[in-house]
Amino acid sequence: MERKYTSSTRINISPHNVFLRKRLFRLLDNSREHPIVWVCGPAGSGKTTLLHSYIRNKDLPCFWYQLEAGDRGIEPFFYNLGLAAAKSCQRKPFPLLTAESLLDIKSYTQQFFQDLYSCLKTPSMVVLDNLQVFSARNLRQLLCDGLSDIPEGITVVLISRNTFPQTLIRLHSSVAFIGWDKLRLTHAESKKITQFLGHKDFSSEMIRQLCENTEGWMAGLILMLEIARQKRPFPVSIAGLIPEEIIDYFNTNIFKRIDNQTLDFLLKTAWLSQFTVSMAESISGGCQINRILDYLNHNHFFLERKRVSTKTFYRYHFLFRNFLLHQAGEILPMSALSSIQNSATKLMEEHGLAPDCNKIFYSLLDWKGDLRFSSNLKASITNRYRPLKIYTLGRFGLVRDGKPIRFSRKAPKKPIAMLKILITLGGKYVNETQISDVLWPEAEGDKAHNAFKTTLSRLRQLIGVKDAIFTREGQITLDPRLCWVDLWEFERLLNDADHAAGCGYKEKSSRNIESAVGMYHGHFLAGDTAEPWTFFIRDRLRDRLFRNLIKLGTYLEDKDQFENALDCYIKGIEIYELAEEFYQRLIKCYHQLGRNDEALNVYDRLKRILAATTKRSPSSKTECLIQTLLIE
Fold it and tell me: 99-146: per-residue pLDDT in tens?
């Protein structure tokens, strides 16, 4: 079969059907100051699509070669590359790698690439894609000899699933790196891609859930969007339902590449939400743990490594962990699953981590058809579906089984007020008297109790979800197994962000903050701002959001993601119109992006708002910032 080669003139991708990742375009622009750019990330992270769209968008001359399994050896690599280059450059065939040439492979490699460079215009780009199929020894040969003398104006881009070889550390100064940390989609990018692909009817909550569970993985987002478009369930919790498309993807791109020892390691360590080397040794009972972990990291097997104090922790991507647990349920006998569950629970508790092993175990029983436990236990463990959703951030709204609950003009004010007060007071184990004191301040004794009972009955009828609200010993609770409240989810995300930051997982922390910010559609119970019982929680949430917007913006600036930082600070100004710090940071970001006119517009806007509302001028810090900008 004739092999197909790709050059810039035959890339069948148009800027009109591919989402243009402008943040990464700017990064590529800067990276081209180096002769070599190394782009690496897991399968499906958008590496090839990124380069395709960048080249077409920039109208950049390019020679593109995608390696296949047959290119692993040095001889077939140069033979196939030579055929592709000759065809693309419309020139005579490149010299073959003969037995005599092998005796001086360095000279042959250097001459081959000099001949290739001479065929190209400047500026132009050479892209070698799928480089992970190349053997390590041959890769060293290529980088040290073939790419040692690249003419000015030509950039060589190497695309691989693997990290840059440590044995080539001396070449670092010649290489720009775009890794998984950069390729990973931000929450804003995931949202824009969702809309770009035509899913404009998706709610912000569904988008938030998709973003959280795909964790910036492009292929995962595309697959999950298609699943959601078909109104099919997608995984929202660990060991939850996992679609066949996700299983097939990981089977095709991951499982075919690992040995039995690594497979055993993956199926066992997946029971741990995060783990150290010693924990992995304990649960897997194997040896060569460091070798396996290094292999998984080097090949981007959806494993994150974080240093926390003196310990190194590892965790799997949400969808990959779900896949591994599904495979464990398919492959391992029940006795083995039970043993792993016990070991994992003990290990997690010993290290002060919250175990989710029981939930995993019963979900796997479900998969395997072993349902020898009560339906109540199953519901309490899996907690997969909550029929009632309550929105309090911005508008107040109730959604039952996916449909909004509509109120007539004569809406039942007291039951709705009872629900709002219950949520304001925490939603769990709230004393009846606390609610009665707000709703019926003049009533006492039996009169207040009877009014409470009547209103609670009307509230239960209104929401229409049996057992969603229960009382016990004079306390009232919204059952979190049946009710989802945006306020609770907002606070959970920020709590998780604080925990992740404390453990050194800054990227995970920032993703949680992004998700929380995306949920904040307005102040808590914005239609009840005159009610004194809302003051405290509204102000607390405002202050907490303020602090986390600053944290997120600082993180994005440190990562040179100034466009995303702009969105963060603009959101801050929408909520806190008089918070001068957001204006200052917005000015700095525009300055970093070379958009000084917009920076000055921000300053002018701040002056007008302060003059109109507080009769004062911007602070000396802001004035100093503007003067520095003008001088530069």
Answer: 888 888 889 989 999 999 999 989 999 999 998 888 767 777 777 788
In a domain, 244, yes or no: no
pTM: 0.58
Closest CA to 470 of 533, 427, 421, 435: 427
Same domain, 450 and 512: no
Instruction: For residues 276 and 500, give the distance between their C-alpha atoms in angstroms, rounded to a whole number.
Output: 16
Alpha-carbon span 372 to 365, nearest angstrom = 9
Cα Rg, the chain, nearest whole Å: 29
State the Cα–Cα distance between residues 11 and 304, nearest whole angstrom. Answer: 33
| Contact by Cβ (8 Å): 410, 505 | no
Number of H helices, E strands in the chain: 28, 15
Domain that holds residue 560: 490-631
CB atoms within 10 A of CB 143: 21
Number of domains, the chain: 5
Mapped onto helix, strand or coil, the DSSP state of residue 7 is strand
Residue 1 lies in a domain: no
Give the 3-state secondary structure of residue 398. strand
Domain boundary among 382, 410, 438: 382
Kindly indicate the confidence band of residue 382, based on its pLDDT and cuts at 50, 70 and 90: very low
Between 212 and 373, the higher pLDDT residue: 212
| Domain termination site, one of 337, 367, 382 | 382
Distance in angstroms (rounded) separating the CA atoms of residues 164 and 350: 36
Whether 524 and 534 have beta carbons less than 8 Å apart is answered as yes
Contacts of 558 (CB under 8 A, 6+ apart): none
Whether the CB-CB separation of 3 and 80 falls below 8 Å is answered with yes
Higher pLDDT, 70 or 276: 276
Distance CA 318, CA 296 (A): 16
Q: Give the pairing type, strands 62-66 and 6-7.
A: antiparallel
445, 433 Cβ separation under 8 angstroms: no
Maximum CA pair distance of the chain?
Answer: 104
The answer to whether 245 touches 226, Cβ cutoff 8 Å, is: yes
Instruction: Determine the Cα–Cα distance for residues 514 and 568; give it in Å rounded to an integer.
Output: 9
Q: Does residue 618 have a cis bond before it (omega within 30 degrees)?
A: no
Within 10 A of 306 (CB to CB), how many other CB atoms are there? 17
